[in-house]
Amino acid sequence: MASDLLRLARRVAEGSIRVVDLTQTLTQEFPIITLPPELGQCAPFRIEEVSRYDERGPAWYWNNITVGEHCGTHFDAPIHWISGKDLPNNSVDTIPPEKFIAPASVIDCSRECAADPDFTLTVPFVKAWEKRHGRIAAGEWVLLRTDWSKKSYADYAGLTEEGAHTPGPEPEVVRWLVEERDVHGFGTETIGTDYGQAQHFNPPYPAHFYMHGKGRYGLQCLTNLDQLPPRGAVIFAAPLKIKQGSGSPLRVLALVEEAPPPRPRRASRGRRSAAGRSR
Amino acid sequence: MIEPLVRPKRKNPLKRTRQPLHPQSVRSRTAHGLTAAAAQGRFELQKCLECAMIFYPPRDACPRCLSARVPFVPVDNRGTLAVETTIRTSTDPYFRERAPWRVGLTRLDCGPVVLAHLHGDVREGDRVRLDLKLDKGGAPVIIALPEKDTPHMTDDRQLREMTCDPKFRRVLITDGRNAVGQAMARSFSEAGASIVFVGVADAWKPFPGQEALRKIARVEIVPLDLTDTESVAELAEQNGARTDIIVNTAEHVRPGGILQRHGLTVAREEMDIRYFGLMRLAQAFGPVMRSRGADGVNSATAFVNLLSVYALTNWPAYGAYSAAEAACLSAAQCLRAELRPGGVKVLNVFFGPLDTEWFQTVPPPKVTPEALARAVVQALQRGLEEVFVGDVAEEVRARLSVNPKALERELAG
């Protein structure tokens, strides 16, 4: 009998487990975190052609790329924030690899965000969500579906004279998710895991402060969260193994049950004969 | 009187684009004294320090007393057009396709008789002003202009061969997000440019002056980010063949020397925006501009670099910035040599601290973006290669010619 692992591979291949790509394409134009100009800036994604079947390399095409660790769809490691600077295994190269696979609870607040770009996630909102979908389990990603990834770049960045207006969590709910629900990390569609005006919170940038302070992770600039169920998706999010890296752009994939799994008896016969044919 | 220039018709796509030609441009080492004066718009001839004779053409010794102390000095440019003629045919391909071409002998009030090109508004016997210009090949030549300005004077056919007038030309201002780019867009619109393309990077980021910029007549906003090779290449694919003047307004001003930089992040940004930005622009737009140097009234004509005067000598208070500017100056000199065969000039505009946010803590005198923009347009109308704008830039130029070491030491504070 096939192992769970091989069964998983087969179900992915036959499409009964669907792979949803939660990653934005790395492009030069995609908005990036903007800090006051006198501060250090994250480098945007840039690409230089090395050769393209030409005098610089006759039979091959390749590029040199430059990119900041926090550009495009990216992973935040605990070392990114000062609150997580002294934790063990806090950088992308030392995080145990099993941490890169975890289930997700997807909290849909797209309707609220459409009405108010300053929507902030609160504990009561999450508790109401739990009443409908069950309690968030320890070790789960909490992903915030805002449909922000569907906006124009200007609306996506939401920049005004007083900074960004994009949705995100209030300090209390982040602390609560870490301490009361023991979540794996927090993921968003927006440029950062925090609310656009989170510099005015106490503490400032709570999603960074509390999550990384307790060794939890962040994912941002996600897309296609609308294709995930509220419960049951499994996220594959493995950052580049950068020495002492604070994060990295990465490919984020979700595995989703497409249909209820076939009944064991019929399914096992079918699978066995299929396997036999392939040999 | 000169007929005013009319807006050029749309190009006939069935006709071959005329390839650029230029007059013979070899000059002696001594004669490049005229090149230096013409590049900066001064009228200078040689004057003997022994017998005070002013003479032309350039020689290594005084024709009267044989002294070798014969520097170029500013002289009175007024004189009388003694005789004129019209060249109707020539073995030189440049003049052959531009005939008829008028030349004449001017007797300068200060002595020498000079063979010069003639502006359309001067006639034999007229009082004239002589002006030193760089021709299509970058060689110094003299043109006789009317004693006083005449209507539509800059539209003269022969004069326009030596200038880079924005009138009816299509201009690309590379960065409209900053005050200099916006002032430049206004100035070029007022100077009669037929289109002013203004590059804006990261359009998702709002910027001050955005609305006013859009309202300037004949301004078209185009996406352009000089740090992104693909963005520059894409714009050149769209607009390269209709870009006659480029004014690179992308800036990156940060105070501090090398030791204050704390790592290379900022230094990389300044080199990326300034030096590599210039390379990207030149690689994307240079070849097509060079091939369009004789493409009618709206031929490609100039590539303008805005450079801190501290490109010439480092100002340690803005030391890393100065170093990046110096890299741009060197690249601009290379580009000038590469564009010259196409009759496209490289204008380097030097200025001291600007009256903008990044020089907030620097005391005046400072150059306003508007003054800088006016100076750029005027320099193009005159066909210059180098211009120094404002008191600080003028002083640095003057002091560098006397004692560069003293200036370096004093700038160090």
Radius of gyration of chain B, whole Å: 22 Å
CATH fourth-tier homologous superfamily of the largest domain in chain B: NAD(P)-binding Rossmann-like Domain
Class per helix and strand makeup of chain A: alpha/beta
**Assembly form of the protein:** heterodimer
Question: How many domains of chain B?
Answer: 2
In CATH terms, what is the architecture of chain A? 3-Layer(bba) Sandwich
Principal-axis shape of chain B: globular
> What do we call the CATH topology of chain A?
Glucose Oxidase, domain 1
Low confidence ranges of chain B = none
Overall description:
The complex is a heterodimer of chains A (279) and B (413). Chain A has 7 helices and 15 strands. Chain A is an alpha/beta fold and 279 residues long. Chain A has one domain: Glucose Oxidase, domain 1. In chain A, strands 1-15-13-5-7-11-12-4-14 form a 9-stranded mixed beta sheet, with helices on one face. In chain A, strand 8 and strand 9 form a beta hairpin. The radius of gyration of chain A is 21 Å and the shape is globular. The C terminus of chain A is likely disordered. Chain B is an alpha/beta fold and 413 residues long. Chain B has 2 domains: 128 residues, OB fold (Dihydrolipoamide Acetyltransferase, E2P), CATH 2.40.50; 242 residues, Rossmann fold. The termini of chain B are far apart. The interface between A and B is medium-sized, with 20 and 17 residues.
